[in-house]
Design a protein that fits this description.
Layout (H helix, E strand, L loop, with lengths): L5 E3 H8 L3 H9 L7 E2 L6 E4 L3 H12 L4 H9 L2 H32 L6 E7 H12 L13 E6 L4 E6 L3 E7 L9 E6 H12 L3 E6 L3 E5 L6 E4 L8 H6 L6 E6 H9 L5 E7 L2 E6 L7 E8 L3 E6 H9 L5 E6 L6 E5 L5 E5 L2 E2 L3 E2 L2
Antiparallel strand pairs: 1-3, 2-3, 4-9, 5-6, 5-8, 6-7, 7-19, 9-10, 10-11, 12-15, 12-17, 13-14, 13-16, 14-15, 17-18, 18-19, 20-21
Length: about 350
Amino acid sequence: MSPSELMPIGVFARRCGLTSSALRFYADSGLLPPAEVDPVSGYRFYGAEQLTRATALRQLREIAMPLPGVEAVLAAEAGEASRLVDAHVAKIVGDASAALRKAADVMSSLGGAPALPIAALKGPVLADAVEQVLTATAHDPSLPVLGALRVEADLEAVTLTATDRYRLSTRTLVPSAPPGRTWAGTVSGDDLRTAACHIRRSALVRLEAGPHGIWFRTTGREDRYARLLTEEFPDHRLVLDSLGTVTGRATVSKEPFLRALEEQPGERVELRLSGRAVEVRPAGGRHPGIALPATTTGAPLRVRFELTTLHPAVSTAIGPDVMLDLRGHDQPVTIRSADRGDLTTLAMPVNPSHGPRR
């Protein structure tokens, strides 16, 4: 390789995103030796074909993979390399969850305000409710509450609520025993997702609130902990109280409805309600729609949705039939079970001329 085809270490460092000192370290460790070293000056030079390996090395170190693991990934075939990366990430996630639980134990042992009993709920029911409501969350670093779940307990029930501004989902649970107090907090959605699979395997889960998080106490299993967020949760009651009058209603079988949504080719779908049918078709397209038998009331109506907004709202509905309460083509649609009212989702439609309503 001629000198003109080589890059000095500084140029190569800028191209691959590593520092010169890091390149020297990886050269000394054998992970990324230079293509050539000037025998007189000791200057190191790298070839353009080494950029891919250098970039992969940097990315693997950015996910905290130790050097032996990096070496194994870089030496492996594509399938085995992916398996090794997956195993490393799974270990990081497991270690983080364990650290959170241990930190919660430490904080509890240091004293301060004791955990307050909130309510006792059936584990499988609570896990289902958490997963259903969390479908209405979004990961937004600037607004962490959009990825959280609001937990509210009064003297009769426990209510879970989440919103990503396009959907608002809420479910009410009746505890095994009446809650002993009123309480409200905004709980980390990521922590709840991790806890849900453990909660599901417990017949009864006791909720206890501490100053910085909520405990899920179980019998014969390890307790789980979820952090409280300090950011203010959106005023979902204002949204619910300001809903317009329902002008139409449609009841349709859930499974055919989901299949029709999944068969649509575009990112947006249009529902056409008329007579005794709901037609599901691509929004603004010429593809034929799928007509589903339905019980409808009110005037014919066309409503458009982002598929990522409507599908989760329908898929989490409880029971075989879904009920849609309609208020107009540009107003929120209420989606719930046709025979149970403890899980309700509001889905925001798309304004055909202005895109998603915000």
